Amino acid sequence: MSTDTSKKYGLETQSIHTGCGPCPATGARTIPIHQTTAYVFDNAEHGADLFALREAGFVYSRLNNPTVSALEEKLSTLDGGCGATCTASGHGAQLLALSALMSPGDHIVTSCKLYGGSVNQFSTVFPDVFGWQNTSFHPTKPDEAKGAITPKTKAIFAESLSNPEGVVTDIEGLAAVAREAGIPLIIDNTMATPYLCKPLEFGANIVTYSTTKFLSGHGNAMGGTVIDGGNFDWLKHKEKFPRLGLPSKNYNGIVFAEQFGEMALAVHNHAIGLRDLGMNQQPMNAYLTFVGLETLALRMQRHCENALAVAQFLESHDKVAHVNYAGLESSGHHANAQKYMKGHGGAVFTFALKGGYNACVKTVNDLELFSHLANIGDTRSLIIHPASTTHSQLNEEARAKAGAGNDVLRVSIGIETIEDLLSDLDRVLNTI
Ligand SMILES: *Cc1c(COP(=O)(O)O)cnc(C)c1O
């Protein structure tokens, strides 16, 4: 079913039907895995047209692939975008999104509540490798973002629901700041998924995902995507965004924003981004994510129900010092969760144990149903002690500031039987 046909349907229907009709050649009902590197041209003229972007089609799987394209169509539709570009990982998606906008010496304003891997990317590797500088702001304070913007700033970047603290970002407030500054707002919607939040509806321009997490949903396929909202006027700001608004150094000097209109960024991300940076997604991963997405709504509903029940249980447990979960009424983010997350808090949150470091280590060692590993968004419940793993290279003060003090555990609550999760936690906490 095509994007145009899909628009009238709800998210559950789209997640099953978009991008997936029966195969015209064989009648196969699910999508084939097109495990091919290249595609035969009809004739010399066809080949030339494809290479010059005069005609859309498949050339070489670093740029596009039918299985990956089907996933892109589904992902773009779920978010209400005009095109998606899938990548090998979420980090690949962040690099791809910025590579169309930034040049050496440029600047980006980033939320101070980001996934640890993104902090590394933005604050160490991007400045060192590409000369992209950044300044951070608190995601509930759009004025801080506004104050950090310079003439070199090319985007604002934030997570809708932050990993791991569950801070709910003021997307509308940030969108207003970005609009006034003539720069796009990029939202990483990995933790929320379009089931809880569609950032484009709140004025964001670009949405990025690690599809590795809840979108694929089963802990078996790395991937990422950049959704083009089609709602930023690159031509109006062409001096600021020359690769989209001025003649390209490739493809005979075409202007992407003139040639491809609202899909300029999505086309650029394939024709230049994937072509030259090479972080394309593999067809097998696209297939697994495509199938995983069919149950997105069911899974997210159960993830959120289970997470709320676990958070409430922990909040009333005498071994627990505090719980950080936007779905709880006690959370400072509860009001923003009502506005942006349909009142839910997602499935990932942190909590602190009164017994500190030793109690945390004992908990991760003794739990039976929770896998002790570095991931989120699996059907299985997951746990990690950030201070001894993901955040072990920070000093104690920096850890506490990042919400990863010695007494803190992060969980990603799965979709198991809730009584089993609660009794596993209760058993272990009572031995502390
Ligand atoms: C995991 C994650 C990423 C990075 O995604 P990978 O697929 O691991 O590269 C980015 N943002 C958030 C919020 C994440 O949780």
What does the model show?
This protein is α/β, with parallel strands linked by helices and 432 residues long. It contains 18 helices and twelve strands. The longest helix is centred in the C-terminal third of the chain and has 20 residues, at 296-315. The N and C termini lie far apart (54 Å). The model has no long low-confidence stretch (mean pLDDT 96). Bound molecules: pyridoxal-5'-phosphate.
Quick rundown:
Helix content is 39%, strand content 13%.
| Main beta-sheet strand count, sense and barrel state | 7 strands, mixed
Overall mean pLDDT score?
Answer: 96
Beginning-to-end CA distance, first to last residue: 54 Å
Taking pLDDT < 50 over at least 5 consecutive residues as the criterion, the unreliable ranges are: none
Determine Rg (CA atoms, Å): 22 Å
List the helices and strands and how they pair.
Elements: H1 3-6, H2 11-17, H3 44-51, H4 66-79, E1 83-87, H5 90-99, E2 107-111, H6 116-130, E3 133-137, H7 142-148, E4 153-159, H8 171-181, E5 185-188, H9 193-196, E6 206-210, E7 224-228, H10 242-245, H11 256-259, H12 264-277, H13 283-293, H14 296-315, E8 320-324, H15 334-340, E9 348-353, H16 356-366, E10 371-372, E11 382-384, H17 396-401, E12 408-412, H18 418-429
Parallel strand pairs: 2-3, 2-4, 4-5, 5-6, 10-11
Antiparallel strand pairs: 1-7, 6-7, 8-9, 9-12, 11-12
Helix pairs in contact: 2-4, 4-13, 7-8
The structure holds pyridoxal-5'-phosphate.
Pyridoxal-5'-phosphate binds at residues 89-91, 115, 117-118, 159, 163, 188, 190-191, 210, 212-213, 222, 224, 376.
